Amino acid sequence: MSAKTSFERVNHPEFFVAGIAVKTTNQDGRSQNDIGSLWTRFMTENLAGQIDEKMSEDIYCVYTDYESDHMGWYTTVLGCRVPDASSIPEGFFTALIPAGDYHVYKPQGKFPDCVVDTWREIWQTPIQRKYTADYDLYRCGAKSFEETEVEVYLAV
Q1: Which of 86, 63, 77, 68 is CA-nearest to residue 153?
Q2: What's the rounded Cα separation, in Å, for the pair 104 and 118?
Q3: Whole-angstrom distance, CA of residue 35 vs CA of residue 140
Q4: What CA–CA distances, in Å, run from 143 to 16, 42, 111, 139?
Q5: Tell me: the pLDDT tens digits for 81-112?
Q6: Which of 33, 94, 116, 156 could make a disulfide contact with 85, Cβ separation 3.0–4.6 Å?
Q7: Residue 36 and residue 112 in contact, taking contact as beta carbons nearer than 8 Å
Q8: 155 near 100, Cβ under 8 Å?
Q9: How far apart are CA 63 and CA 97, in angstroms?
Q10: How far apart are CA 18 and CA 71, in angstroms?
């Protein structure tokens, strides 16, 4: 990884994220459009407010159900962490983030471009990935959109 993006290795238990989902691919820029539309819907319809049992106001963008690697189809779930997979609102999807080892990247630079840049670096680095579930964690409480704190978790 470049000096712009560093990571640490952590191990965490499994957990669940409830939210809305889209099946997408990184081919031909499709994921940017699909995930952008997911964010628009999530924010404009205040879907986080419909998740009664969310554990915090943090937002998770989970990448899971990989067909192959980062160039194949996968499912993106945008939502909030919940205690379990039961009692989620109708029409919502639940993603399981498995227990295990993750590389945690802390993107540096202008938000949200720094997140895209971090993923581009990850795709170009020969990392032994599990392709189970990766995710971005967007911490609540930023004073402005540009000051949003984000971490990228990569299953290894």
Answers
A1: 63
A2: 11
A3: 19
A4: 27, 20, 13, 11
A5: 999 998 788 899 999 999 999 999 999 888 88
A6: 94
A7: no
A8: yes
A9: 9
A10: 25
